[in-house]
């Protein structure tokens, strides 16, 4: 196979899109590595000898100090992470005292391993103090025999002294170390009784005991070593001057270096003042006010993550060991943090607390971000421009260099603020008062809770999250473009160095230093070691020609910038040589480095040397910046000083080793962890501005994991961090999902509120939902967590990380939350009556709308699928559902027995007179507001609507049932109700037979001459059912339930007709259907296809006719699918009436009892006196409950309602007994008698008080007759019988209810008028 040309391969690669669409909601995901940077020479400064500057002694000592610094940091890690072994020692019960010797031996072996580390620290500090003292003495001789110390050497001295100070502070602070040692000594005494030659071991043990028990033993030993042979006041004073000038200038140092200077300065002052010679000489070079100002401006200095140092406390404590220093009263009167006067104590929080600086920080962040992006755009434009102007090119790259320096300084300042605020918080714990958000007593608080958990207010947590996000975002922005700006930075550094050594120094050599041979030689050495003469020959020809026409006045060398940066050794030597020029070879001159008033160098030249000197210190930081990811630099990196990852490292916010020891606990709960506190605050506050920074606190865990593995080198710390991250991330995803769900639920509930309701309110804005930006989090498909390291023994290894799909996790949680919400809503409905169906429908609408809104951002399961799962209705052959079963259960157990019908309002209401049938219902479940409508205000608003429908059952409830059950479960419910009618008829049949048997053989018509009172007396005599009162009540309840079901079917029929009409209006134009005059559906085009079929056929024909049609099969398939849809929708158009079907079903159920309830007359004529048909039984029951209903003691109408009329009249009508009932009903006869009697009395001009006492009963009878007529009119309209006499109705068939009949006015809309 032929090889692909390189040009084509590159062109092909350029077509791939490598852009990462993920938003920056995390910090820089730099892998934990131990590479080496430019801030430390990769070849141990061995190339310095090549420059022949006589710095071999200095270089050798420098490398030795750097080795000691690294070893000391490892020792400090051992001390800081030391945890008591005594706590883990087992205690033997009395029954095992015989094994005490074995326990001592095992304990000794365990503790001996830990004590060996302490002995190693003891030996190392003695060696380090001796070497540091020897190094200082080497440069403190009156006569100068060697060059040095260089600036790099001074820094190494200060760093080693800082390590010794930290070791001493840790040794003093860790109480577990002497405790373990006492146990170790005790076990050694027990175990060594049988050993021989233990004297040397005992001496070593005594030395270790003295070392551990003596405070500041390391510094005391260092003092002895320093002044053992030769005084070192000069070098100590040089270090103090260097530290003071560096702190006051605060330009060329970053926060780690600044903290080093602050920690060692009080120790240096004590050591320099304790000299046997003139101890006051120090204050001649450095005014004491300068020291006091430094110590007062920083009363608290970060030392370790949860340990701080106080210069005032160090000075006071060391004054007890150094008697000469005790005379410095001005320094000793400085207050420690806990001694600061109240007035001054109020001033320090303004400096330390970030909340007082966040406004300026925010402005700095916004300004830098804009200018950095502008500089990057200019740089990209420069790279895409061929033949750019040299001056513009230099300006763009120089601007980029300045932006990187500014970025380093901002990151350093911001991270230092967090360090210093933490140190201040640790020094000022909260008061012992009980925090408002806690129910615990103050006595139960741990010290760590007082300095962390309860020491940060909500506002302080907010600004801390904001600042952390600024640090991480700037770090990410700078790391993303490191490879793009590398060449520009190197070229700028190269240009700065070459311009200084080739032009500035050349000018100085021709003017200032022309007659000073010694200084001229130094300047020449500077040019020799760093001038890039090759750059002059690399100039373009045009630039060379322009430089030749410059004349003799301009003798500056023009060079072509190259991306060749100086090495660490070159920078080291340049700083030394500048130091030599300025100091004249005498570092002991009064004044500072560049503040030497006695210098013979002109001010202008001195300023140029000073500027370049401090630029050199930043060159190494800049060179570290782009190389952090470079694969070509894979050296073992020992010190991480000024990289972006170092300046954005906030892992110290997690560590709490000192407080774990003082609190005597294994680990603190996650609520006390500051990283989790920040993440939790973002979720709880729901601050829109902070929400996109919600993942930023988890970068703190990444940083702390890196420190645990690389810096502290302790696997158990990493395991604890990983365990907390796992636990915290689970809680975080859960809380974040709940926040997202609450927001979308509130949003949906707000949109579904009635606009008229909001318009009528004065404070309607409280029901609006503030927008929250979750889109950035929803796009997080890859979130890098740096953990799961497999092998600590690998030195140059990347952490094996987990890539977490946050979007997927949120989606899983959302699916679960939606299902839980559905389960809760169904549980809530199941604990209430049927009237709560409207509330359920409304809450499900809100949940469904929230699902629709959330589905735009997340691929969650469909709502119908989740709803079917919760209703247990996922099987294709399952027609019942959880909701349908619950509705049927409610109707059977509560609705039908305990609700009564009000025919006028078309509503069922719960009867107050009915003895409630005991129904076992679970208690109403309660949940958080987000399971209802989201917020308390929205819950109240929607509950006010739900309460409007909670006291009755009517048309709104039926609409909710139809919407919720749908066409799948509704037929099952209808069938269950129809079966209930059939069962009720079967149940009351023997009861009616019993009532028939109790009737007299003959009951004649009521005589008109007896009046109302006589008629009622005759009715009571004929209906001798007094002994069958329970039987009567049961029959009435049965008829009432049958009537309730039939009326319920009528309401359902109204709703279904409205739904079908709406559906017909939506589909009819596409199917070519039009309504006929008589209500029948007509086809617009007889024999032709419907419009939708024609549309797809014509579209398919037009597309297929195109010659270039790629896939005509798909269009044919769509055309066939349109035909199938046409058939499917047309088949569902002619739907029947539910009420008509219910009446037909009831008629069929009555067929088997027709012979008993509607017997054919033997004579062929109407049987008037001896009939015991159903109408006669119902007539007796009706007049009985009407009479009872007018009694004050019992309102029987509230017990049975209007459902009895619906049930009784429907049975009478379907049995063909309507005319018989209207002729022979007892109440009708009484009304007739009352009318006749009223007319006769009116003719006699008598007072119409003849019916006194019967007015209420007669009025009730009239109402019953109007209701019966209304029911019969509805039945005639919906279920017309054949045009025959009633007694000739066929007994074997259902009523022929589907014959055509003229449309009549709906009986549900027009009721019979009073008096009809």
From TrEMBL:
Transmembrane regions listed in the UniProt entry: none
Name recorded for this polypeptide: CYRIA/CYRIB Rac1 binding domain-containing protein
PANTHER family: CYTOPLASMIC FMR1-INTERACTING PROTEIN-RELATED (PTHR12195)
Lineage: Eukaryota, Viridiplantae, Streptophyta, Embryophyta, Tracheophyta
Residues making up the signal peptide according to the UniProt record: none
Pfam annotation, one family: CYRIA-B_Rac1-bd
Native organism: Xanthoceras sorbifolium
InterPro entries: CYRIA/CYRIB_Rac1-bd (IPR009828), Cytoplasmic_FMR1-int (IPR008081)
Segments forming domain CYRIA/CYRIB Rac1 binding: 59-217
């Amino acid at each position: 196979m032929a090889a692909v040309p390189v040009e084509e391969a590159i062109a092909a690669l350029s077509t791939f899109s490598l852009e990462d669409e993920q938003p920056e909601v995390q910090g820089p995901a730099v892998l934990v590595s131990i590479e080496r940077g430019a801030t430390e020479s990769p070849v141990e400064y061995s190339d310095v000898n090549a420059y022949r500057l006589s710095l071999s002694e200095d270089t050798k000592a420098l490398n030795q100090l750097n080795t000691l610094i690294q070893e000391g940091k490892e020792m400090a890690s051992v001390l800081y992470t030391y945890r008591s072994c005594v706590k883990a020692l087992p205690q033997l019960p009395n029954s095992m005292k015989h094994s005490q010797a074995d326990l001592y031996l095992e304990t000794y072996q365990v503790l001996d391993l830990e004590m060996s580390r302490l002995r190693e620290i003891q030996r190392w500090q003695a060696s380090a103090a001796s070497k540091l003292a020897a190094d200082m003495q080497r440069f403190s001789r009156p006569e100068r025999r060697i060059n040095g110390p260089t600036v790099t050497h001074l820094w190494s001295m200060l760093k080693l002294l800082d390590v010794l100070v930290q070791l001493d502070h840790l040794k003093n602070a860790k109480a577990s170390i002497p405790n373990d040692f006492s146990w170790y000594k005790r076990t050694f005494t027990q175990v060594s009784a049988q050993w021989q030659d233990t004297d040397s071991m005992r001496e070593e043990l005594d030395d270790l005991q003295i070392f551990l028990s003596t405070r500041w033993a390391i510094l005391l030993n260092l003092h002895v070593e320093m002044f053992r042979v030769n005084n070192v006041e000069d070098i100590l004073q040089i270090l103090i001057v260097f530290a003071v000038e560096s702190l006051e200038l605060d330009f060329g140092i970053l926060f780690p270096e600044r903290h080093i200077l602050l920690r060692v300065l009080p120790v240096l002052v004590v050591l320099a003042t304790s000299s046997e010679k003139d101890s006051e000489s120090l204050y001649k070079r450095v005014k004491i006010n300068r020291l006091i100002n430094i110590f007062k401006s920083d009363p608290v200095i970060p030392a370790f993550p949860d340990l701080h140092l106080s210069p005032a406390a160090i000075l006071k404590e060391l004054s007890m060991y150094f008697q000469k220093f005790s005379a410095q009263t001005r320094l000793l009167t400085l207050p420690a943090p806990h001694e600061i006067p109240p007035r001054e104590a109020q001033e320090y929080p303004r400096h330390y607390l970030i909340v007082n600086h966040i406004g300026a920080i925010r402005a700095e962040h916004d300004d830098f971000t804009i200018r950095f992006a502008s500089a990057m755009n200019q740089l990209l434009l420069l790279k895409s421009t061929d033949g750019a102007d040299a001056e513009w090119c230099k300006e763009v790259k120089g601007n980029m260099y300045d932006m990187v320096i500014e970025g380093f300084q901002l990151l350093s300042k911001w991270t230092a603020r967090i360090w210093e605020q933490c140190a201040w918080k640790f020094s000022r714990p909260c008061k012992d008062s009980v925090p408002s958000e806690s129910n615990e007593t103050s006595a139960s608080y741990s010290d760590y809770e007082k300095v962390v958990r309860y020491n940060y207010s909500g506002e302080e947590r907010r600004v801390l999250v904001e600042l952390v996000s600024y640090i991480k975002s700037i770090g990410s922005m700078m790391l993303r473009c490191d490879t793009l700006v590398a060449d520009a930075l190197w070229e700028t550094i190269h240009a700065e160095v070459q311009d200084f050594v080739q032009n500035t120094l050349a000018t100085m050599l021709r003017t200032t230093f022309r007659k000073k041979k010694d200084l001229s030689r130094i300047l020449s050495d500077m040019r020799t070691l760093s001038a890039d003469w090759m750059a002059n020959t690399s100039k373009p020809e045009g630039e060379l020609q322009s430089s030749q026409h410059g004349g003799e006045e301009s003798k500056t060398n023009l060079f072509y910038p190259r991306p060749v940066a100086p090495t660490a050794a070159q920078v080291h030597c340049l700083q030394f040589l500048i130091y030599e020029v300025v100091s004249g070879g005498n570092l002991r001159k009064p004044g500072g480095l560049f503040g030497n008033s006695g210098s013979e160098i002109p001010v202008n030249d001195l300023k140029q040397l000073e500027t370049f000197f401090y630029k050199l210190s930043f060159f190494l930081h800049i060179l570290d910046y782009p190389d952090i990811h470079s694969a070509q630099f894979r050296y073992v990196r020992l010190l991480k000083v000024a990289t972006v990852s170092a300046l954005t490292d906030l892992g110290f916010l997690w560590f709490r080793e000192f407080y774990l020891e003082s609190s005597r606990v294994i680990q603190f709960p996650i609520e006390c962890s500051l990283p989790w506190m920040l993440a939790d605050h973002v979720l709880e506050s729901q601050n829109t501005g902070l929400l996109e920074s919600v993942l930023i606190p988890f970068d703190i865990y990444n940083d702390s994991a890196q420190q645990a593995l690389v810096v502290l080198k302790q696997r158990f710390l990493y395991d604890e961090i990983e365990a907390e991250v796992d636990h915290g991330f689970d809680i975080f995803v859960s809380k974040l999902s709940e926040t997202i769900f609450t927001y979308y639920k509130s949003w949906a509930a707000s949109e579904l509120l009635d606009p008229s309701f909001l318009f009528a309110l004065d404070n309607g804005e409280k029901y609006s939902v503030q927008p929250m930006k979750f889109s950035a989090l929803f796009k997080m498909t890859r979130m890098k967590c740096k953990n799961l390291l497999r092998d600590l023994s690998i030195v140059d290894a990347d952490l094996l990380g987990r890539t977490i799909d946050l979007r997927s996790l949120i989606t899983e949680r959302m699916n679960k939350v939606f299902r839980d919400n559905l389960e809760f809503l169904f549980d809530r409905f199941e604990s209430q009556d049927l009237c709560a169906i409207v509330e359920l429908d409304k809450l499900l609408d809100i949940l469904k709308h929230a699902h629709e809104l959330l589905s735009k951002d997340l691929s969650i399961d469909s709502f119908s699928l989740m709803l079917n799962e919760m209703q247990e209705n996922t099987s294709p052959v399952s027609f019942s559902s959880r909701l349908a079963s619950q509705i049927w259960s409610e109707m059977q157990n509560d609705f039908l027995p305990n609700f009564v019908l009000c025919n006028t309002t078309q509503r069922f209401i719960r009867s107050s007179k009915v003895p409630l049938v005991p129904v076992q219902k679970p208690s109403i479940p309660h949940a958080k507001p987000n399971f209802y409508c989201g917020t308390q205000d929205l819950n109240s608003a929607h509950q006010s609507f739900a309460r409007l429908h909670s006291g009755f059952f009517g048309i709104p409830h039926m609409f909710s049932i139809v919407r919720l059950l749908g066409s799948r479960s509704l037929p099952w419910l209808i069938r269950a109700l129809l079966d209930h009618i059939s069962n009720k008829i079967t149940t009351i049949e023997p009861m009616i037979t019993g009532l028939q048997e109790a009737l007299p053989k003959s009951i004649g018509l009521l005589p008109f001459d007896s009046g109302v009172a006589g008629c009622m007396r005759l009715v009571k005599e004929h209906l001798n059912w007094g002994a069958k009162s329970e039987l009567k009540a049961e029959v009435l309840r049965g008829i009432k339930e049958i009537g309730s079901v039939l009326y319920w079917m009528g309401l359902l029929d109204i709703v279904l007709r409205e739904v079908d009409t709406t559906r017909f209006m939506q589909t009819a134009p596409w199917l070519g259907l039009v309504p006929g005059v008589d209500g029948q559906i007509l086809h617009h085009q007889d024999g032709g296809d419907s419009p939708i079929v024609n549309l797809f056929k014509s579209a398919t024909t037009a597309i297929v006719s195109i010659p270039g049609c790629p896939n005509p099969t798909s269009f044919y398939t769509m055309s066939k699918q349109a035909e199938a849809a046409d058939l499917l929708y047309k088949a569902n158009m002619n739907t029947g009436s539910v009420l008509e079907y219910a009446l037909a079903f009831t008629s069929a159920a009555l067929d088997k009892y027709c012979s008993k309830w509607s017997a054919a007359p033997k004579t062929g004529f109407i049987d008037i006196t001896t009939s015991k048909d159903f109408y006669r039984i119902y007539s007796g029951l009706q007049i009985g409950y009407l009479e009872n209903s007018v009694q004050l003691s019992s309102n029987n109408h509230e017990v049975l309602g209007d459902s009895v009329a619906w049930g009784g009249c429907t049975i009478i009508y379907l049995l063909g007994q309507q005319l018989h009932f209207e002729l022979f009903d007892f109440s009708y006869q009484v009304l007739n008698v009352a009318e006749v009697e009223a007319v006769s009395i009116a003719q006699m001009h008598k007072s119409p008080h003849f019916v006194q006492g019967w007015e209420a009963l007669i009025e009730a009878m009239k109402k019953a007759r109007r209701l019966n007529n209304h029911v019969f009119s509805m039945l005639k309209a919906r279920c017309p019988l054949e045009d025959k006499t009633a007694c000739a109705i066929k007994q074997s068939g259902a009523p022929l209810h589907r014959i055509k009949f003229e449309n009549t006015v709906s009986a549900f809309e027009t009721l019979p008028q009073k008096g009809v």
